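job 3f2a | input accepted
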Amino acid sequence: MLHRKLAVLALLLLPAAADAQRRTRGEKTANWDEIEKSSSGAPRFSTKDVEEFSAIKIVVEKRKDLKLNDDQAKTLRDLSKQEDEALKPRMQILDSLRLAMRVRPGEDADLERARTSIARQEVLRVVGEIRTGYDSTFQAGLPVLDETQRKSAMELVERERTKREDELREKLGGGGRGPGVGGATGGGGGRRGRP
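job 3f2a | predicted structure (195 res):
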């Protein structure tokens, strides 16, 4: 009879002890359930954040500052639509990579870290390809502008892109500049040299 009571007591207390062990994982002050919840969400960037790199869209957005006439604005809007259509497959890939960057709770932490790191590198590669497309569309749209507008547009685009790149870098988790996020060539000091 005593053995039965001890068995029932053990069955009642073991789940509570196991839950406490899982929650703290040996550290008295850490609540790993909350830590996992905060890190397992979707990445904080969206395809909309990348679309904001479009130089043509920036110019159309700031058309009043650049003193564009209606014909110039219409031509640039048409170019923007063509650009969207041409880059649609890349945007779909980017959206899929966003899903791949999610941390799956309950999986091996090292494998998840490696998987999300690879997905992040792919995101940077795809963003670089999208940005190259934006640059070529912008070059195609420059002849629409007169010399003064062209100079102002180039300065405006550079300023806006720098600001938007910083915001995207922050959403991707900071760090150095990778391909496509920081400079037209994608260069930057993001990687450390390895022996």
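job 3f2a | The chain is about 70% helix and 0% strand.
job 3f2a | closed
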